[in-house]
Structures
1.
Amino acid sequence: MNEELTTCPSFVETPHCDVSTINELQDQVIEEFEGFDDWMDKYQMLIDLGNDLEPLDEQYKTPQNLIDGCQSRVWLQADYLDGRIRLQAESDALIVKGIIALLIRVLDNHTPQEILDADLYFIPRIGLSEHLSPTRANGLLAMVKQIRAYALAYSMKTNNLTPE
């Protein structure tokens, strides 16, 4: 197994892939953003992250997957596979696409409970909240809220299953 591999790319079937904790992933994001002093460089990093995000299959670009509260269009698809939530998303705005890519990087491939319990401290630590326009900041909150809503729904669904 590749020792350098710490996270599984979204929707790649890798049963032996090492999965980092949400806090480890947040710390990696913080470390990467600390490498830039200028917010223009950080915005460029967000744009690059968004550009690296796999395009969302057209079948998931539905009104049900649009996140309410975002000025830009953001589609979020969450699937429950092998006890973990797998996230895919896309946006029509570059920086917003980078923001959702960051959230996916940190929260993808974790259990519903891990997502519900997560303190997303990387957002204030990298200065994201204070450097976004009010509409983008509201969109960020809406994205987090929607991911947590999926986690809660999957958590409730799995807790209601009876053992066979």
2.
Amino acid sequence: MLKLIALCQKIITNPYLGILVSLVLILPSLYIILEDITVIRKEYLLLAVGIPIYVKSLNKIFDDILNGDKNQL
């Protein structure tokens, strides 16, 4: 249980790891869902978890880039 908590903290604090994990969830889910979109599958849940992680990680990366540019001025 502690390893799972530690892994979640790494995903939250490291945006590059967050993007990697979210893409691992999103891409296979999309491949399976697109075979037949009319069937409810567990991949919809994986997609619902993966997309917010992806967006949050990208947001953090872009914020770091923008803040880094301001610090150089």
3.
Amino acid sequence: MPHSTVICPMPQAGRELPRRRRCRAVLLLVPALAALAGCQGTNDLSAVGCLPLRVPAQVVLLQEAGLYWIGDAETPVLSAHPRDTTNDAFHRVQPLRTLPPGTRLGIDRLQQTWGFDSGKGRISAFGTVGPGGERFEYGWGAATTIGRAPWEPATVPRLRTVACPD
């Protein structure tokens, strides 16, 4: 069987198109597919009820946590302690301050990112710390799994499955 090095599809019987026109048709599809691969967005989970928290909510830290700047992020990230600091330099993680147990947090938004090429992504809680109102993001989980938040008791499993709608 002869081998063809042409990247364009071969014409079907009764649908003969000039080779140049076939190649042009294929090349027009490439930007459309690239645009779809870049499609992404967020779903507001605040009122959906798929997470064990309704917002707006006031919660109290039950374990020590910290606020951290990561790279060029606009909002500091809340992270429970103890945490693995092995790759902090690589990820440009810088501690902002430590929050002791008993610190009050206001959670005002729950959301999940999604992408056409990656599906469901990060599940985040957004809120403020104490009366000063310092903003933060807490990465609660990804896809269909969340971890135990620092405001939840140790009786809550480390990982849970959630069923948030698409």
4.
Amino acid sequence: MTITNITRSPEPCTEAGWLAFQYHLEQPVSREFITGLRPLGTLVFLEALQQPFFKVENEHYMIKGLLHDTSIRVAVHGDHQDEQIPIKDLIARL
């Protein structure tokens, strides 16, 4: 999957030491894309909801999004901004 743009998230979370970004994607988020994120951390995928939601949690970051949306939110602790590199690398392989 190609990340077409990365913007700062409109939802602030800097007071807790975290920085959030919207990763805009070339294609809508698919079920395969969501399950492909599993190596990055603990995956929660609530597929039975009217608007299916997923979250991947790791000690230093969190990834959240909706099935069929064209962006995902990535929040990374300010001291671990380099953690975005493996996230971007895995997304590029999906």
